[in-house]
C-alpha cells in the first residue's frame, strides 16, 4: 500500500512482441525465478507478453509453488532460469519447492452450491477438480494491477471480472464512497469534486467512537478516525453499489463467485468516519434466507485497513445480529487459511470468556444459545484447546476454572467488539 503518485493518463496494456521474437520459456514450464529478496523459487509460467519498454524483450507471469496466487506477478526474462529438476537445489540461496506443490485447490462453496442446485448432481472429486480447473483458468491473470482509492494506492491480489472496457488496466481509480470505478485520474478527480455522496446507501445500524489506532498505524500515515459506523445495504435496493463492492472485493479474494447477482444478499459495510465522510474499510455479506444457517457469506477488510482489529468487529457484529434473530450461525465453508485463523481466534475469545464467567458450568448447547456460535464450531474450537472430551457417546466440556484462566491469559489480545448498546438492529423501517 502506497500513497498515489501524480500520474494523469490512463494505463495502457503492454505492446505485443513481434511474432518472430524469440521466447525461450514455454507456457506451463516449471522454472526458478529470483525474487526481490535475492532468493530463487520454483515457479510455473502462466502467461507471457512483450515488455512495454523493449520491443523484443519478454516478460513472464509466474505462480510461485506452494504460495498463494496473490503473489503471482510479471517478471522480466533475466529473473527466470530454466534448469533441470536435479539441479534446482544446487543454486546458492535457492528456496525451491517440488513440482507437486502446484496442487489442486478446492472449488468455491458458491460454485459447488450453484452447480448442485441447477444440475442436481452429487459432489465428487472429479467434479470438484473440473470446477477448480475452470475457475483457475478463467482467473489466472490479474487483469487490474493496482487501484487508487482515497489516499491509498493498493496492489491488486487477484483477478476481478470488471467490464472489458476497464479490464487490463495498470490502475483503476475507485471512489471510497460510491465505489464507482474509473480509468482516468481526471475523471476520478472530477467525480470527487462533484459527487455529493459521502456514505454508503442503506441504513446505519451501528456507530460508536473509534478506539485509538496503534502507533505503528499512525506512523505509517493512517489517519485516526473519529468514529466507526456500519451500514446495512440491501442488494436488491442498492444493486449498483453492491455490485461495485463485490468487484472491488474480488481483487483481494481468490475464491469469490458473487459479482452481479446481489439481490438475495445483505451487505454490512464498515466505515471509518472522518471529516470528509464515511470511508469504506471492510464488509461482510449474508444471504437474506440461508437454508444452511450461515450468518456470513463473505468477509473482507481492505489491505490498507488490516491489522486494526476490524475483522473481529465485523465477525462479532454478525453474531450479535444472530443473537437478536434468535438463531445460531456459522460462516460459509470452507474457510481460507486466514479466515480460519480469524474465526478460530474469535471463537476462542468468546468461548473462554463464557466459561470464565460461568466458572465452566456450561453445556455446549447452553454456550451455543448464549453466543449464537454453532455447536460444530464450539466443539472444534474447544478440541483445539484440549477443553473437551468424548464420553458415553457425546462431547462433554472438561475444564477447571484454573485452566480457563490460564487459557485466557495466553489469549489475552485486545480486540474490537460490537457493543450491543450501539447496535440498532433490526433497523427501523
Content of β-strand: 15-25%
The CATH architecture of the domain at 30-101 would be: Roll
Multimeric state of these chains?
single chain
- Which of globular, elongated, flat, extended, rod-shaped describes the shape? globular
Structural class: alpha+beta
What kind of sheet is the major sheet?
Answer: 5 strands, antiparallel
What does this structure look like?
Helices cover 27% and strands 23% of the residues. Among the domains are: 30-101, SH3 type barrels (Roll); 341-410, Arc Repressor Mutant, subunit A (Orthogonal Bundle), CATH 1.10.10. It is globular, with a radius of gyration of 24 Å. The chain has 429 residues and is α+β, with helices and mostly antiparallel strands. The strands form five sheets. A five-stranded antiparallel β-sheet has the order 4-3-2-1-5, with no helix packed on it. A five-stranded antiparallel β-sheet has the order 10-11-12-13-15, sandwiched between helices. Strands 7-6-8-9 form a four-stranded mixed β-sheet, covered by helices on one side. Helix 7 packs across helix 10 (401-410). It contains ten helices and 18 strands. The longest helix has 21 residues, at 337-357. Strand 12 and strand 13 (277-287) form a beta hairpin. This is histone acetyltransferase.
Amino acid at each position: 500500500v502506497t500513497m498515489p503518485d501524480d500520474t494523469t493518463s490512463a494505463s495502457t496494456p503492454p505492446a505485443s512482441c513481434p511474432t518472430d521474437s524469440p521466447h525461450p520459456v514455454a507456457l506451463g514450464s516449471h522454472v526458478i525465478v529470483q525474487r526481490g529478496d535475492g532468493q530463487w523459487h520454483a515457479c510455473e509460467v502462466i502467461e507471457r507478453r512483450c515488455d512495454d519498454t523493449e520491443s523484443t524483450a519478454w516478460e513472464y507471469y509466474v505462480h510461485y509453488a506452494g504460495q498463494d496466487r496473490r503473489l503471482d506477478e510479471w517478471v522480466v526474462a533475466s529473473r527466470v532460469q530454466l534448469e533441470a529438476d536435479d539441479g534446482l537445489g544446487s543454486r546458492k540461496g535457492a528456496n525451491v519447492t517440488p513440482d507437486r506443490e502446484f496442487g489442486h485447490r478446492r472449488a468455491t462453496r458458491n460454485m459447488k452450491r450453484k452447480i448442485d442446485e441447477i444440475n442436481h448432481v452429487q459432489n465428487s472429486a472429479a467434479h470438484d477438480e473440473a470446477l477448480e480447473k475452470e475457475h483457475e483458468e478463467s482467473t489466472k491473470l490479474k487483469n487490474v494491477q493496482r487501484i487508487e482509492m482515497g489516499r491509498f494506492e493498493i496492489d491488486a491480489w487477484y483477478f476481478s471480472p470488471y467490464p472489458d472496457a476497464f479490464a487490463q488496466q495498470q490502475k483503476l481509480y475507485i471512489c471510497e464512497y460510491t465505489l464507482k470505478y474509473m480509468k482516468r485520474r481526471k475523471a476520478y478527480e472530477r467525480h470527487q469534486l462533484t459527487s455529493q455522496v459521502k456514505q454508503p446507501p442503506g441504513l446505519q445500524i451501528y456507530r460508536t467512537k473509534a478506539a485509538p489506532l496503534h502507533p505503528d498505524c499512525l506512523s505509517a500515515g493512517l489517519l485516526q478516525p473519529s468514529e466507526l459506523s456500519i451500514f446495512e445495504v440491501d442488494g436488491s435496493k442498492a444493486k449498483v453499489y453492491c455490485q461495485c463492492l463485490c468487484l472491488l472485493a474480488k481483487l483481494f479474494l481468490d475464491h469469490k463467485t458473487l459479482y452481479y447477482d446481489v439481490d438475495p444478499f445483505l451487505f454490512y459495510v464498515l466505515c471509518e468516519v472522518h471529516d470528509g465522510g464515511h470511508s469504506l474499510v471492510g464488509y461482510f455479506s449474508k444471504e437474506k434466507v440461508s437454508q444452511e444457517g450461515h450468518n456470513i457469506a463473505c468477509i473482507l477488510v481492505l489491505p490498507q485497513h488490516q491489522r486494526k482489529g476490524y475483522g473481529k468487529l465485523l465477525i462479532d457484529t454478525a453474531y450479535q445480529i444472530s443473537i437478536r434473530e434468535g438463531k445460531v450461525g456459522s460462516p460459509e465453508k470452507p474457510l481460507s487459511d486466514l479466515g480460519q485463523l480469524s474465526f478460530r481466534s474469535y471463537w476462542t475469545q468468546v468461548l473462554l470468556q463464557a466459561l470464565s464467567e460461568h466458572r465452566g458450568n456450561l453445556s455446549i448447547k447452553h454456550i451455543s444459545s448464549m453466543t449464537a456460535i454453532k455447536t460444530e464450531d464450539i466443539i472444534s474450537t474447544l478440541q483445539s484447546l484440549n477443553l473437551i472430551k468424548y464420553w458415553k457417546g457425546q462431547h462433554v466440556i472438561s475444564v477447571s476454572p484454573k485452566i480457563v484462566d490460564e487459557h485466557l491469559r495466553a489469549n489475552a489480545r485486545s480486540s474490537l467488539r460490537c457493543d450491543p448498546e450501539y447496535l440498532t438492529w433490526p433497523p427501523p423501517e
